[in-house]
Design brief:
The chain has about 220 residues and is of the alpha+beta class. The protein has one domain (about 30-215). Helices cover about 50% and strands about 15% of the residues. The protein has 7 helices and 4 strands, in the order ααβαββααβαα. It has helices at about 1-15, 30-35, 55-70, 100-115, 115-120, 150-175, 185-215; strands at about 35-45, 75-85, 90-100, 125-130. It has a 4-stranded antiparallel beta sheet with strand order 2-3-1-4. Helix 3 crosses helix 4. It is globular. The relative contact order is 0.14. Residues about 1-20 and about 25-30 have low confidence and may be disordered.
Length: about 220
């Protein structure tokens, strides 16, 4: 009996001595792990007298980005999508942003550049921009976060926005399942964007914002668009 008590005390003390581990290591840099942030940006034609054609983001996400994420997910530490449209020179742009090794960036860029769907949509896309994979210019995890945020938020935000992007892309994929798999037409993707709009309008306050607020213990906060 004494032996069992003694062994139990050793095991308990051993467990107590193991500190909790971080889920991520924000302090890691490219110098240590050879990774960095990379952009693949798609700039769309946007006539002055028309609203943004948001469905084109969905087309790129479904036909070009989703296969890339599936093929290279094990080599990407963080990833996200970014959508924007403003009359400021950059215009309407959809970006796929990921944190990985340069060789992964090179492979992803080659896959995107050689995608036949991209070639078919050249009339809709004003320009496609890739970073230079021969040099890492954004080595730290926080390098694409808003520099106005606290450092801790900058370092942990990539994990948050990756989850948001993953859900959005999964919604796109599922809503697009009804499409003709060979279609390159814009009409069906307009319907996908409309369905996304409806899902957000009806569910954002509870499924998205309420539960996010709950994680942070329902504390008051300032909000702006």
């Amino acid at each position: 009996m004494r032996i069992w008590i003694w062994l139990s005390l050793i095991l308990l003390s051993g467990c107590a001595a193991i500190p909790p581990q971080r889920l991520t290591s924000p302090s890691e840099t490219a110098a240590e792990v050879g990774t960095g942030w990379w952009y693949a940006a798609f700039e769309f034609t946007w006539p002055q007298d028309q609203p943004p054609a948001w469905h084109r983001d969905v087309m790129i996400a479904h036909r070009i980005i989703a296969p890339v994420v599936q093929a290279y997910r094990s080599q990407i530490r963080y990833w996200r999508v970014h959508r924007r449209a403003a009359r400021d020179g950059a215009g309407h742009r959809f970006s796929f942003i990921f944190y990985a090794a340069p060789e992964t960036a090179r492979a992803i860029y080659a896959a995107i550049d050689s995608d036949p769907d991209l070639a078919a949509w050249r009339g809709l896309i004003h320009r496609v921009q890739f970073d230079d994979p021969s040099k890492i210019t954004r080595p730290d995890v926080e390098d694409t976060s808003d520099p106005a945020w606290p450092k801790l938020i900058q370092q942990t935000w990539p994990a948050y926005i990756m989850g948001v992007s993953q859900m959005w892309l999964e919604l796109v994929i599922r809503l697009a399942e009804e499409l003709d798999p060979e279609t390159l037409e814009e009409g069906p993707y307009r319907k996908v964007q409309e369905a996304l709009d409806a899902l957000w309008a009806a569910n954002a306050s509870h499924a998205f914002l309420h539960h996010l607020n709950a994680i942070y213990a329902y504390q008051p906060f300032w909000t702006r668009y």
